Amino acid sequence: MSFFWGLIAALAGNSIIGLGNCLQKYALTRGESRFKTSSNQDDTHTQPLLPTTSPVPVTYSRFKDRTWFIGISLVYLGELCGNWVALSLIPASVVTPLGILGVVVNAILAKFLLYEQISFRQTKGYIWILIGVLLTILFSATSTNSIENQLSTTSKLFAYMTQFQVILWLITILVAQCILFMMVRAKKGKSSLVLYVIMTAGFGSLTVVASKFFALLLKVWVFAPSDGNKPNLEDKIIPAILDDGSSIALIISFMAIIFILIIGIIGQETCKQFALSKYRVTQFQPMFYASHVTFVAMSGMIVFKEVGSWRSVVGFCCGIIVIVRGASNKNIQYDDDSDGIISDNDETIPTEIDSLVPEILQNSNNPRHYGALV
């Protein structure tokens, strides 16, 4: 029964997250269009052939935009009330693939709010992703070792957090993120969709694992029934700390969860905002979803040992491959109707110049305009 309620919570949370992402992109796009309109009215002697250096100008502040603020609030409302509740009931490798619902909501709302058209090949890509999600849920639901039931006390939980594979996974993720950050810095301002996607997915895996530990901690402390069938924090937390023999170690471990969670949330949100300001939702979200599912699935296998028989592992890996296959569809990454076309080196090439060609031809006989263009 807990598995069913976990699925319901994850589906509801991801629907809210999809709505929040679209509202954020809508706010960024609206701010960009308003700035371009005011710039064209105020300055008529600028070089029309020079591309805009940043899709979202400096004068636009997303923190003062009510629509953007509502969008990001909905995202974290879906995370807290949906995914966090689901993580305390079902494995992380099951919760994360359910994010496909958020991708579908993004695709539907993007068509009406952002006027982003979805081609037939893009639809095929979404179908591939949906099939992969069904495979991962089918196999991961029966291949988990039920770590939620094994970690029934705070002593067992904190002892598990200090195991070798958990520490090794954390160090690997942090080192990889540092390398990716230096690669982004090396591009000197040039955008890269692939780097943003991998960095966002990496920070997202940190967030999911830390959220899983935090949800298990709350479940052990608060929701575990006491002798009187009522949760008593005084009778639970203090004896658990004293029985472990090292209250300092427990406090440090608890602070480590919070610290990793803060790093994951800030890093993921920063990379996602940069990506949303440069690329369309239908470009970024499918690639991010596939990378996020892959990272979380690998993290679940390493950290939480969510591995069953070899048949379950093969089926689960096939589901991940199908998801990546759907997200790597060229018409999801490279859309002919997009605001920017991603080239071989993943740089955004503005297409607004096409709208300037008639104006250039019209003013070509005017020496003042012609001289300005030269």
TrEMBL record:
Membrane topology annotation: Multi-pass membrane protein
Q: What is its main location?
A: membrane
- What keywords does the record list, in alphabetical order? Membrane, Transmembrane, Transmembrane helix
* Gene3D superfamilies in the cross-refs: 1.10.3730.20
Transmembrane intervals:
6-28, 68-86, 92-114, 126-147, 167-186, 193-218, 248-266, 287-304, 310-328
List the PANTHER family. DUF803 DOMAIN MEMBRANE PROTEIN (AFU_ORTHOLOGUE AFUA_1G15880), PTHR12570
Cellular compartments per GO CC: membrane
The answer to whether the entry has keyword Membrane is yes
Q: Carries keyword Transmembrane helix?
A: yes
Subcellular localization, per the record? Membrane
| Pfam families with a match to the protein in the record | Mg_trans_NIPA (PF05653)
**GO molecular function terms noted in the UniProt entry:** magnesium ion transmembrane transporter activity
UniProt protein name = 16337_t:CDS:1
- Note the superkingdom of the native organism: Eukaryota
What are the leading ranks of the lineage? Eukaryota, Fungi, Fungi incertae sedis, Mucoromycota, Glomeromycotina
